[in-house]
Amino acid sequence: MRYLLLVFLIITTQIEAQNNDQKQINEIYNTALTNGSGYAWLNYLSNQIGGRLSGSLQAQKAVDYTKKILDSMGLDRVWLQPVRVPKWVRGTPEFAYIESDPGLTNNVPICALGGSVATPLGGIKAGVVEVQGIEGLKVLGKEKIQGKIVFFNKAMDPTNIDTYMSYSGSVDQRYAGAIEAAKYGAVGVIVRSLNLRLDDFPHTGAMSYGDTPMESRIPAAAISTNGAELLGATLKLNPDINFFFRQNCKMLPDVDSYNVIGEIKGSTYPNEILVVGGHLDSWDLGDGSHDDGAGCVQSMEVLRLLKATGYKPKRTIRVVLFMNEENGLRGGTEYAEQASKNNEKHIFALESDAGGFTPRGFSFDCNQANFKQIESWKSLFEPYLVHLFVKGGSGADIGPLKNDNIVLAGLRPDSQRYFDHHHSANDTFAHVNKRELELGAASMASLIYLFDQYGIK
Ligand SMILES: [Zn+2]
């Protein structure tokens, strides 16, 4: 009899907890959809400040603006965490053309890849060799590449439903193309933009020279997908055409910048920290609305939603707007270093850095026991169609926090349109849908709420 009573009590407590969770999550979604703040914040970040390349005036303005918003939210603590960041500047607009016969030219849209060196002042004109990815260099060999511009034309694979997989499959030519091509004596590289559709936007992104000595570094630029198609077709007709490009980007010395941080202190376990964040820097061609203005305002909105619904966290909940994800990851690295130096105990970190599109679920970087616990929450997200819970990556900025005692997670929005915008002039506020952005913030707040309630195993 006593045993039965105990079972009965356990079951009723569980049902009660489940009901409370449902109620709290419902309130979070209702508040986000009727009284959200994230969209207005994003409007300001995008349209009043604009692209926020690390070390730029706009990046500093974004630090000041988001700190001001956090200051106004009645949090327990708001502060700036200093971090030195690289400062790369694009200079004047790049220019390029295909010369199919002497004097017969077609202009094509290009942009310098982030971190690239400039061309000589008057530009570079040379013959072109096309390869499908880095592996293609070996096939051609030094003899055919020496003195030429290498055109990396490996397209993103359209058959993956998860477009990030296609991005991962092609991004090496952008990141390391210049290192590898220089080894074969190339004078420059032109990389097909990482975009699944055909259009006229060149997409920038980080590239590296590794330990290539300064004098052997060759300029690297991205070409729009339409431009890449034209260049590829022209080369098929006549492999002896020339390509011209000019860019005057430059790497300047590091400058001071900041991560922007705010927190609500936990009432029961103040030493257990939950982080939610995105990255405040962006590329400079668009206004960085999807990448990653959306993730920043959603993360700020998480704390606001919890407060607005009257929720008092047991654990400390911290929003972190990381600086310099795009071309250095210095903010994420510094945050993790300070956390370990101060012996802070982080149990959960969630990043939104995959665009402000309709949320589908989350991916989790954690052990099996933790994942089992997380899966038991899935049904709470079903009414909102946000119940794709998978094991996988989380986010670049929270990556450095990884250890055996933390669960890392990433918001997984629908990815079909992300690469239409990513790192290009087409990443603007007009392409963010208010409801989709709000649903993402509500989903993140709900997950943070559950981790706050139950901790980790
Ligand atoms: Zn990003």
Mind sketching the topology for me?
Elements: H1 2-35, H2 38-49, H3 57-71, E1 77-89, E2 95-101, E3 104-107, E4 110-112, E5 124-131, H4 135-145, E6 149-152, H5 163-183, E7 188-192, E8 220-223, H6 225-237, E9 242-246, E10 250-264, E11 269-279, H7 289-308, E12 315-322, H8 330-341, E13 345-351, E14 359-365, H9 368-375, H10 378-381, E15 388-391, E16 407-413, H11 418-421, H12 434-454
Parallel strand pairs: 5-6, 6-7, 7-8, 11-12, 11-13, 13-16, 14-15
Antiparallel strand pairs: 1-10, 2-3, 2-9, 4-8, 5-9, 10-12, 14-16
Helix pairs in contact: 1-12, 2-7, 7-12
Protein described:
With 457 residues, this protein is α/β, with parallel strands linked by helices. The chain contains 12 helices and 16 strands. It has an 8-stranded mixed β-sheet with strand order 1-10-12-11-13-16-14-15, with helices on both faces. It has an 8-stranded mixed β-sheet with strand order 3-2-9-5-6-7-8-4. α2 (38-49) runs antiparallel to α7 (289-308). It is elongated. The mean pLDDT is 96. Bound molecules: zinc ion (ZN). Zinc ion binds at residues 279, 291-292, 325, 353. Zinc ion is lined by residues 279, 291-292, 325, 353.
What's the alpha carbon Rg, rounded to whole Å? 24 Å
Relevant CATH superfamily of the largest domain: Zn peptidases
User: What value does the average pLDDT take?
Assistant: 96
Instruction: Report the span from N to C terminus.
Output: 31 Å
Shape annotation: elongated
The hetero molecules present are: zinc ion
The main pleated sheet reads as: 8 strands, mixed
**Order of helical and strand elements:** HHHEEEEEHEHEEHEEEHEHEEHHEEHH
Strand order of the largest sheet: 1-10-12-11-13-16-14-15
Percent in helix: 25-40%
